[in-house]
């Protein structure tokens, strides 16, 4: 028995190694229908009804569409419906399952059906079913000939493999996605796939490969001129160079990451990059610079009550203390930080903390401390890998059962249609064999205690606290990523069509003082009640975005009947006349507002500049006494030309309108 397991292990490892860096020699080009679907998705992004109508019209006028293309449309329709209601998506899933019975030998149809199943499970928050269905979609997608499906499923399952720390399958998925991007010379997809591969290779200590794919992503970025993720690319490259002991080059790219983050208004991200620079300064024996950088981040974290960032500063201070031969202080600070990470269940950050301590102890020639840190890291890492290996094994077992259940359902259908199930079972033999091989590999890896090399991907932003893609976990309104990825595109489309939207920036008055008096839980209540009150207004319900902390944004889409001053006055009155009950007593809450029209915007950069201008109007409202709004109109020059908003108003470069709330009688 042991002999057979070893032989199976060797065969699977050989298969994995031969396939890891290879892609299918076949080209996977987007068909005309796939390209038209992509155009529709971009044109009507965010307007689900418009996308659904346009897709229906396209299908009606495409009688020659292949089964795979029709299944692709149906699974995209399923995803859109899942965003509206689970029952609508379940109806589409039922029709896809019916379609699978008619096209049992079509891997693209089976992959699309499994992807729809995953979308429904995700909407219903059924995580086990979501993982099983997505993995099943990936198995079928590898045999599918529809390029868009291969790309979608591969990049979606990559996120699952990343969570489970399945390096080999993650690499395989991303290489499939990269092949589709390269075959179609799609620069945005080339940039994304290479970026994710660079992160993966950095995490698995394959630094040369990380640099190679980082460079490929950078080249694509320079051609698309979409620099939103530029700072992350700089940071990724810096970490690879640091691991290769090329400290001076690493320093240059961290500094670029800091500069780019600030340029894009991602100030919290910039603080983590500053801590990266402080850590690198310790490795370069520049203790004074490291201490100065750490102190600057500490001020920021204190000002914004950022508890996670404060404990990252504690870690950095513990490393500084080690380098300064103050072991007692180093241990105390480190334990405080580790206890916080343990309590908040930040397993990834905890692993990274022990690894960094080992590096600094080695640098300080504190070899006993280095050995203890490496021991803790190894113990945590092995437990982490073992747990996730078992999770993968469980998922694969469920996938195989699910495929067999699907086959049984399809076979029963064909029996009812005077056919046999023999053909169906044989048609899925390759997919089942692939699943069995993967399962055998994982069992062998667990048996042999094979531990994959990895360093945990270090992306510490708001997404590390909530795992959802587009929603803020506390208030359940949209987050900044949704604004960047979806709303900004809608604003650009409207602006290019000469339609005026509005950006309304909101900040809660004296929020820090409120937190200090009543506590952070009360602060959370205020944030949730503010969003609830705003969303109760039907005009605002789908357009509230939390940018971070107590900062919110309302996006008002084009409307010929919109009277912006009336809307702003209503928002101010709604909040100021809606006290929040804290400690059994109503507490008055007010907000300050800055708003601007979105006009003559031709790029994402223009949208960012207008948002910065709205912030300037907001801070003018703060200066003038709070509980009021200042709005910008008649803007005579680009928004980024405006430094001092009051000076610009005096020079007639723009017009400012002041609005105060109506009081209840």
Automatic annotation (TrEMBL):
Residue ranges of every copy of the GGDEF domain listed in the record: 499-634
Reactions that this protein is recorded to catalyse: 2 GTP = 3',3'-c-di-GMP + 2 diphosphate
Keywords: Membrane, Signal, Transmembrane, Transmembrane helix
GO molecular-function terms, A-Z: diguanylate cyclase activity
Transmembrane segments: 431-452
Keyword flag Membrane: yes
Top EC class of this enzyme: transferase
Alphabetized Gene3D superfamilies for the sequence: 3.30.70.270, Tetratricopeptide repeat domain (1.25.40.10)
Enzyme Commission designation: 2.7.7.65
Signal peptide: 1-22
UniProt cross-references to PANTHER family, sorted A to Z: DIGUANYLATE CYCLASE DGCM-RELATED, REGULATORY COMPONENTS OF SENSORY TRANSDUCTION SYSTEM
Protein name as catalogued: diguanylate cyclase
């Amino acid at each position: 028995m042991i002999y057979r397991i070893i032989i199976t292990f060797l065969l699977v490892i050989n298969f994995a190694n031969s396939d890891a860096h290879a892609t299918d020699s076949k080209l996977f080009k987007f068909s005309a229908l796939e390209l038209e679907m992509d155009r529709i998705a971009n044109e009507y992004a965010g307007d689900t009804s418009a996308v659904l109508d346009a897709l229906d019209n396209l299908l009606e006028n495409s009688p020659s569409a292949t089964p795979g293309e029709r299944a692709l449309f149906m699974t995209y329709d399923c995803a859109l419906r899942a965003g509206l209601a689970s029952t609508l998506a379940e109806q589409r899933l039922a029709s896809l399952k019916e379609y699978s019975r008619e096209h049992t030998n079509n891997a693209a149809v089976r992959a699309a059906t499994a992807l729809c199943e995953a979308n429904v499970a995700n909407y219903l928050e059924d995580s086990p079913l979501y993982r099983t269905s997505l993995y099943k979609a990936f198995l079928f997608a590898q045999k599918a000939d529809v390029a868009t499906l291969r790309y979608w499923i591969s990049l979606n399952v990559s996120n699952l493999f990343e969570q489970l720390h399945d390096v080999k399958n993650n690499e395989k998925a991303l290489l499939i996605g990269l092949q589709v991007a390269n075959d179609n010379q799609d620069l945005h997809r080339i940039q994304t796939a290479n970026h994710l591969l660079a992160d993966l290779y950095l995490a698995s200590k394959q630094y040369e490969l990380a640099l190679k794919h980082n460079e490929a992503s950078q080249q694509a970025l320079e051609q698309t001129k979409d620099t939103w993720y530029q700072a992350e690319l700089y940071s990724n490259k810096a970490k690879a160079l640091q691991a290769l002991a090329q400290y001076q080059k690493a320093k240059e790219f961290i500094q670029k990451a800091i500069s780019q983050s600030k340029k894009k208004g991602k100030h919290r991200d910039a603080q983590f990059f500053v801590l990266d620079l402080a850590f690198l300064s310790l490795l370069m024996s520049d203790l004074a610079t490291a201490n100065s950088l750490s102190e600057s981040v500490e001020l920021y974290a204190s000002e914004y009550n950022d508890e996670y960032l404060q404990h990252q500063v504690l870690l950095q201070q513990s490393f500084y203390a080690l380098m300064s031969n103050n072991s007692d202080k180093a241990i105390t600070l480190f334990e405080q930080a580790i206890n916080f990470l343990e309590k908040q269940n930040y397993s990834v950050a905890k692993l990274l903390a022990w690894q960094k301590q080992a590096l600094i102890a080695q640098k300080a020639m504190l070899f006993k401390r280095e050995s203890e840190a490496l021991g803790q890291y190894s113990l945590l890492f092995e437990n982490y890998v073992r747990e996730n290996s078992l999770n993968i094994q469980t998922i694969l077992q469920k996938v195989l059962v699910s495929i067999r259940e699907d086959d049984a359902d399809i076979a029963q259908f064909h029996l009812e249609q005077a056919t046999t199930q023999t053909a169906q079972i044989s048609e899925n033999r390759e997919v089942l064999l692939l699943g069995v091989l993967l399962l055998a590999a994982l069992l062998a890896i667990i048996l042999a205690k094979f531990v994959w090399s990895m360093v945990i991907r270090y992306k510490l932003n708001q997404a590390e606290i909530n795992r959802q893609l587009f929603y803020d976990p506390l208030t359940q309104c949209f987050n900044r990523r949704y604004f960047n990825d979806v709303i900004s595109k809608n604003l650009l489309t409207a602006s290019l069509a000469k339609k005026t939207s509005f950006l309304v920036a909101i900040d809660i008055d004296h929020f820090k003082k409120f937190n200090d008096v009543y506590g952070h839980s009360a602060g959370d209540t205020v944030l949730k009640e503010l969003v609830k009150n705003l969303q109760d207004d039907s005009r605002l319900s789908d357009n509230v975005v939390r940018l971070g902390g107590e900062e919110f944004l309302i996006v008002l889409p084009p409307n010929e009947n919109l009277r912006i001053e009336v809307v702003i006055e209503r928002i101010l009155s709604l909040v100021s006349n809606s006290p929040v009950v804290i400690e059994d007593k109503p507490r008055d809450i007010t907000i300050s507002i800055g708003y601007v029209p979105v006009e003559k915007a031709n790029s994402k950069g223009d949208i960012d500049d207008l948002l910065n201008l709205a912030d300037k109007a907001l801070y003018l409202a703060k200066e003038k006494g709070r509980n009021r709004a200042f709005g910008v109109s008649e803007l005579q020059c680009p928004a980024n030309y405006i430094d001092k908003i009051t000076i610009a108003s005096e020079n007639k470069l723009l017009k400012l309108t002041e609005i105060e709330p109506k009081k209840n009688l």
